[in-house]
Design a protein that fits this description.
mainly alpha, Tetracycline Repressor, domain 2
């Protein structure tokens, strides 16, 4: 089976830091990363402050804030919902479908063994969510 192991270059659109505005709960964010990290703080009123942040700044801001009590229970569902919005756009939907049946592996250079794979270790949740969304789009056609 073909594998796509880097969300850069021709596949940069798979990355959560890819600049593609996404609207979520009434706020438009510059990237999936900014949107995702905006959902982590307990203070819901601070979410607007994440709208135009670059991915690294959004993560740092979220990590330094008091997290919502249910974060570990809802974070994957939130990520999935944000990705559904991103890949609901025709151009990105087509690009995702163009990956065919390739296994999508989010190899990362930083330590994220939950959404990614770091030095061969990790759950690759982002890659799995993207493949599920791709399958969903295929089944709707």
């Amino acid at each position: 089976m073909k594998q796509i192991t880097s969300f850069t270059g021709d596949y940069d659109f798979l990355s959560n830091s890819y600049k593609s505005p996404v609207e979520f709960n009434g706020i438009e964010y510059a990237t999936v990363d900014a949107c995702y990290w905006a959902q982590r703080p307990k203070d819901e009123h601070s979410r607007i402050k994440f709208a135009r942040l670059k991915p690294a700044k959004a993560k740092a801001k979220a990590i330094n804030a008091i997290p919502r009590d249910d974060w570990d229970d809802v974070k994957v569902n939130i990520m999935n919902n944000i990705l559904l919005k991103k890949f609901g756009k025709e151009e990105l939907k087509k690009k995702l479908l163009d990956t065919g049946n390739a296994e999508l592996i989010n190899n990362v250079s930083y330590n994220d063994e939950f959404y990614g794979v770091h030095y061969g270790n990790g759950e690759n949740i982002l890659g799995k969510l993207l493949m599920q969304i791709r399958d969903k789009i295929k089944s709707e056609k």
